[in-house]
Amino acid sequence: MGHIRLSGNPVIDVIVRRSARARRLSLRVSSLDGRVTLTLPTSVSEREGAAFVRDKEDWLRENLAKQGMPVPVAIGATVPVEGVPLVVRSGAGRSVRIEGNALLVPGPEERVAARLKGWLRTRARDRLAEASDRYAAALGRPYSRLTLRDTRSRWGSCTHDGGLMYSWRLILAWPEVLDYVAAHEVAHLAEMNHSPAFWAQVERLYGDWKPSRNWLRKHGHELHRYRFDD
């Protein structure tokens, strides 16, 4: 895969991929994280693809503006932690820390995104483990393991052998949203379905779950805007 960069404010990076099955050029903006992908048939040159992208630039910017532009994580960027927007600043010492409305990240500037991502994953594991332990104890059913991923299609899952998986990006959301996802997945330890009995378990563990589920449906895609690896 290659890429095309459109200069401007902001810069737009377009991922280029070729497909033997494609019959025409197509441009797609992901509704999850705003990634832009250009698909080229094998017979079309990358130069023609770049011209196609430039021709669609106004359309691209309009669509990206509607859903929120991607946020490259770097010094000066604003990143939410447990729902609270914090400005990433250069910090001293050895550990990432929150100070007022700033997120202080030590080390060289080129390592800020990776270091902050590691800190957020650790914080997410701690919070999700605490919530999962609490709900599993209330349910009376232990889980077998807890793993974190950067999933784009789901916020959590529960396997038949009791394994819980969560998106680490839940640490960017409000704590009650993270707690809802933990309660949802732990409830699957008792009900491996989405029947009325399952939702009754969620309500017993968590309370009124609808506001948090609705928040994720409306705003969850925003958590994927933050780019730590680009």
From TrEMBL:
Gene3D superfamilies: Metalloproteases ('zincins'), catalytic domain
Superkingdom to which the source organism belongs: Bacteria
Pfam families listed in its UniProt record: YgjP-like
Domain YgjP-like metallopeptidase: 23-219
PANTHER family according to UniProt: UNCHARACTERIZED PROTEIN YGJP (PTHR30399), UTP PYROPHOSPHATASE (PTHR30399:SF1)
Name of the protein in its database record: YgjP-like metallopeptidase domain-containing protein
